[in-house]
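One example copied in:
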Amino acid sequence: MKEFHKLLPLATGYFGVSSALYAFDGLIVVYGPAGGAWHINIEDEPRWYRGPATVVGAGLREMDVILGNEGKFIENIARVATQLERRFVALAGTPISEIIGTDLRGFSRTLEAQTNKPVFMVPTAGSEPYPEGAAKAFLALAGKFMRAPAANAPRRGVNVLGAIHLSCGREEHMQPVLDAIEAAGLPLVAVFSAPRPGEEDPLAAIRRAPEAELNVVVSTSGIPLAEFMRAAYGTPYVVGMPVGLRGRDEFLALLRRENAPTQTMAARPACRHAVVVGEPVLSHGIRRCLRADFGVPRIDVVSVLPDEALFAPGKGCLGVMAERGAHDISTDDEAAIAALLNDPDVDCVVADPCYAALLERKSLFVPMPHIAMSARLNWDMPYEYALEKGHEYLAAKLHAARA
């Protein structure tokens, strides 16, 4: 059994559902006890304060669970969805629905008939990592709204998959990536999950997504959708988060299907042995930046989420900006991470500020918030990771320490 003394457990499945679907103007119903959506809205969903509620709890009481008061639940959700004029309703499973065997799929059909709105369920159990919940939500969204393009229709543009706030932070941090894609001559078709500004219907881009010629996956939560779209629509994909200057060049080369230009390594390393802790795709992007842009000779990655899919890409994958290092590990175990961070050879740590509590010795600490760990605590912290902005941020932190 895992023990957490200085850290909190990472967000789980239905938190990922909320992160994936939040911006698409739907109603996300967490099938759990009264207050079931409280922790999502108050802690893990900083966007909650910007508009009407998007995530609500089923409000189940003990007797509702015992007696199976399903009619009341369906009636309440139908009323709320209608009053808020939501475009769809998504039912997310929790440990409660798993234990009592709730037929959320059947509920979805009943609600759809009563509301005349699209309704679907996301088969989460509440115990899976949040990227799995987000991935299931994306697949459910795709199954409900994507439409195959005409047989002879030209394929043009790019979808960005996996851009959820739990992994990527505020939308502003992802904007340089989106700008770089468009500057490369590849128009954006859909961004999961950040609808394009000015679109009256945020689901319009989802419907058009199969028309894109390429999918770009920026976190592990987007890999299952990329593989689904490859199988269903023949859309190839690449995986990677472009961090720093070398990351920028490799990323653009992947998009253009070219070889990345060579780049001279930094002559004077900013540190000797760095450890990067966080979401796998971003962490490997940071590693590539530290090595190529700053000459750090050894960088180990601690993926606090499962990373198997990152190193076992499907047939439609054109490239992955990650490579498993000899000393990399995948774990969210507090004791194991603390032992690595306090290795006498480690002189630099890049991680969410919460991990600083594990340090028992002086080491350069570069804050890189992971919202799934620290929630709204570090939501407004000034930091960057993408392309030139990421290089500037890391350079300022590393050079300040060296000076």
